[in-house]
Amino acid sequence: MIQSMTAYASRSGALPGRGWSWELRGVNGRGLDLRLRLPEGIDGLEPAARAALAARLVRGNVSATLRMTRDEGEAALAVDPARLATALAALGTVAAAARAAGLDLAPVSASDILNLRGVLIPAPAEGQEGLMAALTADLGLALDDFVAMRRAEGRALAAILAGQLDRIEALLAEAAAAAHARRDEARATLTAALRRVFEDVPEADQTRVAQELALIALRTDVAEEIDRLTAHVAAARGLIAGSEPAGRRLDFLAQEFNREANTLCSKAQSAALTRIGLDLKAVIDQMREQIQNVE
Fold first, then answer.
1. Which of 13, 18, 85, 272 could be cross-linked to 138 through a Cys-Cys bond (beta carbons 3.0 to 4.6 Å apart)?
2. Is 53 within the bounds of a domain?
């Protein structure tokens, strides 16, 4: 069954001294675009989160946000020694370059250094060695809810698409009936045209004229377009009922639907068949809009 790319889920958790909340949001996308907003200082969390999301999702613009909280009275921040060393080395390089250029720089205070990005990180709390495992476990639970919502939205989309395919099928039956009704009229029209042409064309050229009129009849025959659209309806139903992500293939199929409907309209040569062709195009456009939500 198809899935939607639109969904939302959240999950909260806690360990002694700190808590957190995950939030997942998803909208339509051509591919899988993961945007993670994670606090610094939790080694290995980002690659683990990306791997977990990529394992469950195929398409969509998905944002994953983790918000951390700490109990009052806990030491909230600590210095990252490696990043502090990097910052001090950079400041030393700048100071040396300034002296060489004969420039005097204002003194740098400890608070200035601590305000540099990444120097201060959330301080590790006692007894929270399992923080990483707890965070990834809660992400997995949030992801379960996220995928469940995508599936629920997918069931709703499947029902809408099934109704649109039913409408297309009904219009194709009307088109076949209109084309059959037009056949007798077209035959009479072509016969009359042939007789008029024969009056002015030498006997030796009548075979050539008959061939040309036969080609005109062939070019206005819409049976092939109706057959192809009928096959497309069956293919679309198979994709919707399948277990694999089908958004890209359904989108391509919708383009083929539209191409065949355009050809049918160009061959219509009757008001009834033209109206049916335009109705087909309207339903196909509506169906394609819905397909844009399919993973």
1. 13
2. yes
Tell me how far apart the alpha carbons of residues 189 and 276 are, in angstroms, rounded to a whole number. 22
- Is 258 a domain residue? yes
Query: Are 285 and 225 in a shared domain?
Result: yes
pLDDT at 258 over 70: yes
Q: What is the mean pLDDT of residues 172-193?
A: 76
Pinpoint the alpha helices (H) of 25-118. 45-56, 81-100, 110-114
For residue 121 the two structure tokens come to 């990180």
- Cα 121 from chain centroid? 36
Residue 127 confidence (pLDDT) above 50: no
Q: Does residue 193 sit in the same domain as residue 104?
A: no
38 pLDDT exceeds 90? Answer: yes
- Work out the pLDDT band at 190, boundaries 50, 70, 90: low
pLDDT number for residue 57: 95
| pLDDT for residue 52 is more than 90 | yes
- 179 plus 249 within the same structural domain: yes
Name the amino acid, one letter, at 137: A
**Domain housing 212:** 152-291
Check whether residue 56 and residue 81 sit in a common domain.
Answer: no
In a domain, 2, yes or no: no
pLDDT at 126: 45
* CA pair distance 239, 254, nearest whole angstrom: 12
Q: What is the 3-state secondary structure (H, E, C) of 148-191?
A: HHHHHHHHHHHHHHHHHHHHHHHHHHHHHHHHHHHHHHHHHHHH
- Statement to judge: residues 240 and 169 lie in one domain: yes
User: What is the b/e burial string over 145-184, where b = at least 16 CB atoms within 10 angstroms of the residue's CB?
Assistant: bbbebbeebbeebbeebeebbebbeebbeebbebbeebee
CB count within 10 Å of CB 44 equals 9
3-state SS class at 276:
helix
Q: Is 271 a domain residue?
A: yes
